[in-house]
């Protein structure tokens, strides 16, 4: 009951949108029935395609998790090392500023030509796009730490890895999570791009495949499942963020 009460406005908005869509389609037939099939047809397509959609979820996660996880690991570790080293930061950050704005899909021809499998090509595109926000946010988080806190920590005998673990990393965590959240949102866009070449399964592939056949009931079904998956992943991310940044949350 607390959950329903907390998100009552969201449920009201969703119910209003669903009702409006049904009125505009099966109710008053204002929208094109080919492009916008009624909810019963979408529900039937969702049920009839449940096995394909289930496989699509596993396939999409098989691309998303390793590529995003590797980007998170390298981005945080690399950002901490570069952020703590003035020489590395002064020489590398300008290069990062030049490389990071390039759209990841520009690397697609090279990924296909150089990597042995389409799976590696797809994950590499997601990895490249996810890396930059995490790396740059981690560096920025380290740089923004006030020097007096580091001086106080050193005065207490903290140095090396202990200083990094007990002071620098916790102080940089809000910025790290900011970059990681941005990267996670961007990864869903990149996932669809990655599933456009070589991959024969996945939610993005499912939507694009049936769009080619003008089967928009299945297209909408795939989009609904994709939205639900994104909602679950972002909810899990927010939960982890609240747990790890407990001192920044109210109540």
Detailed description of the structure:
- The protein is 80% helix and 0% strand.
- It has a single domain, classed as MetI-like (MetI-like fold, Orthogonal Bundle).
- Helix 10 runs antiparallel to helix 11.
- The relative contact order is 0.12.
- It has 251 residues and is mostly helical.
- The longest helix is centred in the N-terminal third of the chain and has 35 residues.
- The model has no long low-confidence stretch (mean pLDDT 90).
How are the elements arranged and paired?
Blueprint: H1 2-6, H2 8-27, H3 39-48, H4 50-84, H5 86-99, H6 108-114, H7 118-143, H8 147-155, H9 160-194, H10 203-212, H11 216-244
Describe the largest sheet. Answer: none
Known CATH architecture: Orthogonal Bundle
- Kindly identify the CATH topology: MetI-like fold
Instruction: Estimate the mean pLDDT confidence.
Output: 90
Distance between the amino and carboxyl termini:
19 Å
Describe the structure concisely for a colleague.
The protein is built from eleven helices and no strands. With 251 residues, it is an all-alpha fold. The chain has a single domain (38-248), classed as MetI-like (MetI-like fold, Orthogonal Bundle).
Annotation keywords:
251 residues, MetI-like fold, 0% strand, globular
């Amino acid at each position: 009951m607390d959950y329903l009460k907390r998100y009552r406005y969201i449920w009201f908005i969703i119910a209003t949108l669903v009702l409006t869509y049904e009125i505009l389609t099966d109710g008053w037939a204002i929208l094109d029935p080919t492009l916008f099939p009624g909810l019963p047809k979408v529900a039937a397509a969702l049920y009839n395609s449940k096995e394909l959609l289930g496989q699509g979820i596993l396939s999409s996660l098989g691309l998303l998790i390793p590529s995003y996880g590797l980007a998170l690991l390298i981005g945080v570790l690399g950002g901490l090392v570069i952020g703590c080293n003035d020489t590395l930061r002064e020489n590398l950050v300008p290069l990062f500023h030049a490389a990071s704005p390039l759209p990841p899909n520009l690397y697609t021809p090279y990924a296909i030509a150089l990597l042995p499998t389409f799976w590696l090509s797809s994950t590499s595109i997601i990895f490249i796009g996810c890396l930059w926000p995490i790396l740059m946010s981690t560096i920025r988080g380290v740089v923004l730490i006030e020097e007096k806190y580091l001086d106080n920590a050193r005065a207490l005998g903290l140095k090396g890895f202990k200083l990094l673990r007990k002071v620098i990393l916790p102080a940089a965590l809000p910025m790290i999570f900011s970059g990681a959240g941005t990267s996670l949102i961007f990864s869903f866009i990149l996932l669809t791009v990655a599933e456009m070449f070589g991959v024969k399964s996945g939610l993005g592939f499912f939507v694009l495949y049936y769009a080619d056949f003008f089967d928009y009931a299945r297209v909408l079904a795939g989009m609904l499942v994709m939205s639900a998956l994104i909602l679950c992943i972002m909810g899990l991310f927010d939960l982890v963020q609240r747990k790890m940044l407990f001192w920044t949350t109210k109540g």
